Structures are given as C-alpha cells and as structure tokens.
Amino acid sequence: MTAAAPSPVAPVQDESLLRAALKGLVVPLCGVAFAFGVWSLEGRVLDAYDTVTAMNIGVAMMLAVSLNIVNGMTGQFSIGHAGFMALGGYTSGMVTYYGSLLLWGTAARQGGPFGAGEWLFAASCVAGGLVSACAGYVVGLPSLRLRGDYLAIVTLGFGEILRVLLQQTNRVIGSREGLAEAKWRELIPPPVGGAVGFNGLPKYTNLFWVGLFLSLTVIFAVRLKRSAIGRSMIAIREDEIASYSVGVNVTRVKVRSFVIAAFLAGVAGGLYAHRIGVNIEPRDAGFQRSFEYIIMTVLGGKGSVTGSMIAASILTYLPEWLRDFDRYRMIIYASLLIAMMLLRPQGLLGSREIWDFLPWFRKRRGTAR
Amino acid sequence: MADFVQTLETALAVGSLYALIALGYTMVYGILKFINFAHGDVVVLGAWISYTVAQWCLKRLAPADGPPLWLGPVVLACAMTVCGVLGFLIERLAYKPLRRAPRLNVLITAIGVSLLLQNVGQLDAVFGSSPVSMPALLPNPALVRMSFGGPGSSEVVIGLVDATIFVTAGLLMLALETIVYRTRLGAAMRAVSFNAETAALMGINANRIISFTFVTGSVLAAAAGFLYAMKYPGLNQPAHTIWVLLGLKAFVSAVIGGIGNVRGALLGGFVIAFVEQFGAFYISSNYRDVYVFALLIIILLIRPTGILGTPYREKV
Amino acid sequence: MPLLEIHDLHVAYGAIKALRGVSLNVAEGEIVTLIGANGAGKTTTLRAISALARPSQGRILYGGESIVGRPAHQVARAGLVHVPEGRGIFLNLTVEENLELGGYGRRDGGIEQERDRVYALFPRVKERLRQVAGTLSGGEQQMLAIGRALLARPRLLLLDEPSLGLAPRVVQTIFQVIREINQAGTTILLIEQNARMALQVAHRAYVLEVGQIIMEGAAADLAASDDVRKAYLGVHG
Asked: Is B129 a domain residue?
C-alpha cells in the first residue's frame, strides 16, 4: 500500500500515440454519452418534478463522491464540505450573472441548448471549482500542523465563517447600468444577495450538465483511487506513521486530497446554484448541510465511490418519497446514522465498489480494493 | 466608558455560560477523546425543560404576586436531573458500544445523537417547533448602578438576573473544580483520562467514571440552559441555528482553552465571550461569529493544542 | 493449593499467537520469575492474568477461583495487583494522588499503615509528594509505581520489568525492596530481562520462549544450567 505499488498497466511500446490517446478518450466519451442519455430522459420518462429530483441526486452524488476523497480515502475528517460547495456556487453564479449582464445586457437565459449561455455556465462551474480549490488549499494547509479532530474543527470554522460572510454580502445589482454606476461599497462585499440568497441567476442546470460533470467526477474518483496518489491516500488513512516511514509525503497528499475534493465540490456548487426553483443561500455553506454529505459518505462506506453514490441517491430520494413525514425526516436520518455506526460501521459497501461484488469482474481485475 | 463597562458585564455573563457548557465538552474529550457533538443539545434540552417545568408550576400555583422565590431552584433542579439521566443514557446506549471502535465512528455517532435530540425536541409531542417565552422567575431590580461622567450621562446597571447567573455559574464551576482537583473521584477521572487501562489496574472502574463524567457534564449543561433561558427569555425551537451556534461557541471555547483541560475550558469560555462581545460592540455585530471562528483558527495554528493544552504526542 | 494457577493459556492478537499453551503456578509466599527474550510472551502473560488481555483459551485460577472474564478493576480489587511495563505512572497527577489511587479499590480503610510503610521503603517518594509525577526520574517513578501497588495491599504482586531503563545502583535498590516486600508476606510474580538479577532474587523460575514454557525449576538450578547461562545470562562456553 505505498506510492510504489505496482500498477497493472501493460507497457505501451508498440502502441501508437494516437491509439493511446483514443484509448484514454474512451472512458470520458462514455461519460458524455451517459450525459446525453440522461438528458434524453428529460421530458419523456421524467416529468418536471422527477427531473428536479434527478438533478438533485446527481449534485448530491458529486458532493458525496468528492467528500469521500477526503473523509473516506484519506481518512481526514472535513465538516466544511458544504462551504466549498457554496463557495463554488456563488463564484459560478457571479460569473454567469454578471457575465451575462456585461455580455448581453440581461441576466436571462441566453441561447438554447449548447448556446452561448450554456457554455458560459459550463465555464463558470469550472471557475467555481478553481476558486474552491484555492480555498481547499488554504484550509488543507493546517493539516501541516493539525490532525484528526482539530482539523475537523478548522473545516467547520471555515464553513461557518463563510456562511456569516455570505450573509453580509450586498444586494444583487439588477442591470448593466446599475453595475456601471455602482459604488465601491455596493461591490465590496460582492453583490450576491446577502441573507436572502443569490436570486436572479439564469437556470442553466439541466440533466445533461449534471450527467456530464457527474460522470467526469466519478471517472476521476475511481481512477484516483487506483492511482499512486490514491494509494498513498489510503495508506495515510490506514496508518499515517507507517506511510511516513515508507516515503509518502503525508502533508502533500493530504493537502492534495483537500484541493481535489474542494474543486469537485465547487463544480457541483455551480450546478447547485443554477437549479430551477431555488436560490443558493448562505445557509448552504453551514455545517448542517455538510453533515448531510458526511452522512452520505458514511452510509456508503469509507472510500467507496459507488457506495457514496448509492447513499447519496437514497438520502436525496428518501425525503421526496417521505414528503408527508417531513418532520420525521431528520429523525430518520439521525437514527439511521446511529444504527449504522452501531451495527455496520463500515457502511453499505465497506471500502469496496459495486463491481467488486460481481464475481466475473472481480476475477478479471484481481483484488482491487 | 459606560459602554465599555456594559460590554464587560455582558461578556462576563455570556462567558460564564460558555464556560459551563465548555466544561462538558472538555471532560468528555479528556476521557474518551472524541467531540461529543450532542452536548450542545443537552443545553437546549435544559433550557426547554426549565421552560416546561416553570410554565407548569406557574399554571398550577397561579401566584398573585409573581412567582415564589423557591421556584427558580426547583426548576433548575428538575432540569439538572432530567439532563443528568439523559446524559447517562446517551453514553450507555450510543457511545459505550463503540468503546473500541475508531474515533471517527464515535464522532459520527455523536453527530447522529445531536441531530436526533434536536429533531425529536421539535416534535409537537415534545417541545414543538415554535419559539416560546420563558416566564420570569426572578424580579430583576438593579443591584448595582454605576454612572459615568456627569449627570444625565449613561449608566451601567447590573440586575438581579445577571448577578444570579454569575453566582450560580461561579458556584458550579467551583464545585466542579473541587471535584476534579481535590477529591479521589477527580483523581480517578484524571487517571482514566491519562490512561484508562492503567487506571483499571488501580481498581478503578473506568465505565463508572465515564458515566459520572457524562452525568456531570450534562448537569452543568442543564444549568447553563436554565441560566440562558433566564437571561434570554425568548426561547427558539430546539433545532434553531442559534442553539447550534451556542453549542459551537462553547465547544470552540473548550478547544481554545486546550480541550481536555478543565481550567482551559473556563479560560476559553471567557476569552471567546470577550472577543465576541467586544468585537460585536466596537467593530460590527454582524460578524460576531466570524471573530469567534477566526480566533479559533488563529489559536489552533499558533498553539495547536490550545492555550492550556499539553503538547500532543504521537505514540509510535 | 497454589495462589495462582494457569493452565494451557492461549492469547492471540489478531492472527498473531502470543501465548500458545502456557501453564504455570505460583504458591503463596514465593517469588517466581518468568524470564525470556523479547517477544516471548512475558508481558502478555501478565496482561492476561490481570485481565488486560483476553485469553482465547485456558484457565486462570486465583486462590482457587477462576478469574477469566472478570473486568480488570475487579481483579485488581481482589488483591492481584499489576505494576505494568513502563511503570504506568499517571504523569499528569501529583505523586501523592498517584499513591492515593493505589488504594482506590480498598473498602477497608487503614491505608495509613501501608502509606507509612511505603514512606519507609522509599523516603525519596515521600520527599516529592506534592510534585507532579511527570517530573520524577525513572527510578523514582519505579519506586512510586511499586509503592502505589503496595497501597492496594496486594496478595499477589505482578511486576513487569521493574529494572528497565534504570541505573545499576537503582536496580540494586529496587531488587532489595522486592525481597523485603516478599519477606513481609506478599507473593510476587516477576518478569525480567535482567535474568541474572531475577534468578538471584526468585525462588523458582520459568523460561518462556515464543509463547511456550520451555523450562522450569528452582531459580538456583536454572541459574546453574548451561542452556540458561548461554541464552539468558550471556555466559559463553
């Protein structure tokens, strides 16, 4: 379980560069195909309500999978994941909203499917991810000095500070003229709506973009788990001191896991902010929201990508299904969490993936844990 | 000057509440090495039980000239008893089965217990989900008046309620300090916290000590909840963010003082209250939570184990 | 009937078998020593006796009664007192508090008598009562550990490497005290790497190797045996 673990990749001497490149593209292309697939369901199989639920599930899956990189694979404990999500969401919202105002003079939706507006939106999600990643770096840095519970507290503090700061932001500016005439004090702190949330965002999020970013996240996470960095993350989770002694740069790997997870959460935040019918709000950054994602990763199993996805979909779907029992929802969540820890602490799948349960696949792959 | 003294007085009152709550966090951490997230919810329960008991008694008695003086202590005792029992049960049912599990699992369980308490408390059959107003159990005449500057200038008043908070909190802290540092039981608690296995070799029943710790922490939390309800009679519903923040700040106090250290929790409680209150008054009250968490992060980076914490030593 | 009887004791840590069928007994009034190399299972044996390690198989009888499965604090209260490896001093408590905790499990009062005895045995401990135990030297900590165990008024004292890391002079003192404690009526089961000293002070000895007893006998006989001399006393030829 070290960085030097042998990788099962065969030597690629006689393979042309082009073929290698094509081979590398196959899996991401599957992701794109998946995105088109789910998108085509919209309006046909799924009505408007189902579509929203499906998007929520997709976003929740992204957040659970990304949090699992820190909490599950690396064995750190972040209680600030919602903070990264919200940071990405607000950033992305600023890019689409004020970008649209500057480019087209209106914040309304621009162009149809794959029109200019949607590409701006896709870019804004990535921008949100990058800003979150920077924050992830800053928050991950204390892991130089802190470990375990203390690190958890710092991440919690990050989310809470962000929540309070977002509450103090300025009102959203409604027009290009308003933006041009705005005084400094209307721009700093940024005009993203304060306590009521960032209203007026164009609602670009649809099943295609959710499907695309989700499949890229999942592919990335699965590959990460099998990569050298992923192995060192798991090594740190299992025994930090032993990892040190075999040459894993523990600090760097920990910070990296934070940065990666924050990036993915930031992208998911972009999708979250542009959903139909809801605004992103300061309390989305708070730790209660973070707890929801923690519950998903715990339920799914530590380090299990597919496990987190299953848990995310169950926990997002359950409240829809139990609408009438809304007041019992958190009670059920909480009981589930406690029961899980007492009866099956390793989570639904443990640290395995869903395909590890399929016999033929397991045989082919050897024991990939 | 009057503003300064008034802020100081508020900070002391709030600080003693934080300190009372922080003690519970710190004692549990000292012995079991995990953050008992559910502790803040015991405080909420203490406040709501105080309200329920006070309301019930007042309805029964319907006193003509205000509530009798003995009512306050009775309400406090009820809250302490119920919370003490609850603390015992939480430990027995949720944490004890996990004694040998990884700490992360216990932490997650604690989060679960916290969510459970909050949301069960919100049920209509329990406390309901709307805010209530705590009846005044004490008259609040001014005990101390300090005026600053000439006539007509502002003056600072310390009322009976605040004085009661100081005295009650002070007595409880003193009692705990005595138990922990002056008795055999306290020595046993500190021994278990240092090394539970070796403590067992002394004939110390670690499970009993742990139960005692939870009960003590919960009793103090109940008192804090009661005092909080006295000072801020508008009680929010059990899952309200304001409670979560109260618990979090107390917890931050414990961490800043050096978690696991009883005196550190007291110090931390006052430090946090001072930073919060003075920051709110002199800079901006909008950011009061930011001061607290920023201070937390700064202190953790400078002194990762808190002000009075002993340096962390990794066992290899 | 021996005070302590162990039959076919097995202890495993996960897949690793630390003890594989250890049997030994200690009679009232004896000093018995268990010698062996690092990792032979000496400490595990003591830990199993005082219920810190759970045996997978085997019987442990103390005063004729089985004590397997009892919690550690009850075993300690029954007078079977274990001074663990590394002394087990609570470094965050004062010396006096450490001593007091020795008598924690006693319900009979009368601790003063033992306390005076400890002060007489270890005058240096008495001088430092108010100090935090973390400030004591290694030798002082070992004295405190033994003194603390005496406050429990043990019937059987388990000592794990009392000479570890101590200066030769201090080692002499400690062994002198062990002898005195025994003469005052306390039975002792002693683990030592310093086999020479252990065999001098003990009446009987067992040699433990990879989780099994390979030799037993009177201490003087073992000390004279060639095998023991070569393997544990560093005498060649």
From this structure: yes
Q: How many residues comprise chain A?
A: 369
Query: Per the domain annotation, does B299 fall within a domain?
Result: no
What rounded mean pLDDT belongs to chain A? 86
Q: What letter would DSSP give residue A285? A: G
Sheet holding C212-218, edge to edge: C80-83, C156-160, C187-192, C31-36, C204-209, C212-218
Whether pLDDT at A153 is above 60: yes
Q: Is residue B93 assigned to a domain? A: yes
Neighbours of chain A (3+ CB pairs under 8 A): B
Taking the CA of residue A241 and the nearest CA in chain B, the distance in Å comes to 7
The model's pLDDT over B230-253, given as tens digits with 9 standing for 90+, comes to 999 999 998 888 898 899 899 999
How many structural domains does chain B have? 1
Domain range for B220: 2-239
Q: Can you give the pLDDT at residue B316?
A: 36
Sign of CA dihedral B147, B149, B150, B155: negative
Q: Examine residue B306 and state whether it is found in any structural domain, yes or no.
A: no
3-state DSSP: chain B helix, strand, coil percent, rounded to 5? 70, 5, 25
- Interface check C111 vs B, CB under 8 A: no
| Complex prediction ipTM | 0.91
Per DSSP, the residues of B162-174 read HHHHHHHHHHHHH
User: DSSP string covering B115-156, please?
Assistant: HHHHHHHTSTTTT-SS-EEPPP-S---EEEEEE-SSTTS-EE
CA B129 to chain centroid, in Å, comes to 22
DSSP-based three-state secondary structure for B294:
helix
pTM of the model: 0.86
Minimum distance, in Å, between the CA of residue C90 and any CA atom of chain B: 6
